[in-house]
Each structure stands twice: as C-alpha cells, then as structure tokens.
Write a structure and sequence with these properties.
Organism: Scopulibacillus daqui
CATH topology: Four Helix Bundle (Hemerythrin (Met), subunit A)
CATH class: Mainly Alpha
Order of helices and strands: HHHHEEHH
Oligomer: single chain
Shape: globular
Largest sheet: 2 strands, antiparallel
Protein name: Damage-inducible protein DinB
Family: Belongs to the DinB family.
Structural class: mainly alpha
Keywords: Metal-binding
Number of strands: 2
Number of domains: 1
CATH architecture: Up-down Bundle
Length: 178
C-alpha cells in the first residue's frame, strides 16, 4: 500500500511535468513574458516553487528554517534567470532528491521541530509537511494556468482526480513510490 503523503508527492511531480510539457509546446518568450499578475512572469512562479521545495527538503534533511530561507534568498536571482529547460532539469534533480530521502525514511516518519522566523516552535513531521509542499505547488500551478489564459493560451489539466484516473488506467506507469 502506498502512503498518501508519498502519493501526493508523486502527484506533485506529475503535475509539474504536465506544466513543463505544456510550456515547452509554446513560444519560448511565453516563459518570461511579463504580465500584470501575482508574479511578473511564469519564470518567477517556477523559481518561487523550486526554491520553496528546495527549502523544505533542506528542513526535512535536518537543516533549520533560517538556513532554508537564507538559501532561498541566496539563490533567488540566479534561479529566476534560468531558462525553461534548465529549470525543468533542476525540478527533476530536486524530485530525485526527495524520492531518495523518502526511500530512506521507509515507513517511519521523521519528527521535525521547526522554529519559524517569528520565533515560534512548531512540532510536526516530514509526512505531515508533504501535503503542504504539494498544496503549495498546486496553488502556484493555478497561478501559471491563470497567467497562460491571460496571455491567450490554454493551460493543461493538473487535477489530482485526473492524476488518479490516469494512474488507475495505466497511463502513468513506474512513476510513483508504490
């Protein structure tokens, strides 16, 4: 049986691939086109999601939240300058890091104490935070969908229900933790 948290992460990886595949179908300038939205461009959205995911795997791996936030700030400008293919490769590499980490955890969860920047301490665990990582990605894929539509392009479906259907029908094979 697959842990729901790991299935959610697998879904997150699939949904990101859907977005990258759609962006590669469009003109290269769409990725950087500036528009009036929550983020100035799709490249900025993807950089934000990548850096957030990077920060969380750092925290999962034992680093404190301040380290993760400083790392994100250090890499922000250079990440925003990455071309689409580079960003996709970075997402894939980061996903491999997550999968390796999860495989090393096995069925056991890892407790986390997260000291938030305001000084509050939150006691949680890796598997409690995986839905947060996934939900954050889902939220920002929605931003990308809205931005694409604002530019006159269709997006691509990334719904969890579609993912489950495609997985059940065998259209997604060998891409999960089960």
């Amino acid at each position: 049986m697959t842990r729901l948290e790991l299935q959610l992460y697998d879904y997150n990886e699939w949904a990101n691939r859907q977005i990258f595949n759609r962006l590669k179908e469009l003109s290269e300038d769409v990725y950087r086109q500036e528009i009036q939205s929550v983020f100035p461009s799709i490249s900025h959205v993807l950089a934000h999601v990548y850096l957030s995911d990077l920060g969380w795997i750092e925290v999962f791996s034992g680093k404190d939240m301040n380290h993760a936030l400083m790392l994100q700030e250090q890499l922000k400008d250079e990440t925003e300058l990455k071309e689409l293919k580079e960003m996709e490769a970075m997402f894939l590499k980061l996903s491999e890091r997550y999968k390796l980490f999860f495989s090393q955890l096995g069925d056991s969860d890892k407790p986390l104490e997260i000291k938030n920047p305001n000084g509050d301490l939150m006691e949680t665990s890796v598997f409690e935070q995986v839905p947060h990582v996934t939900n954050h990605g889902t939220y920002h894929r929605g931003n990308i969908t809205a931005m694409l539509r604002q530019m006159g392009y269709a997006s691509v479906p990334t719904d969890y229900g579609l993912y489950l259907y495609l997985k059940q029908t065998g259209a997604i094979v060998g891409k999960d933790f089960s």
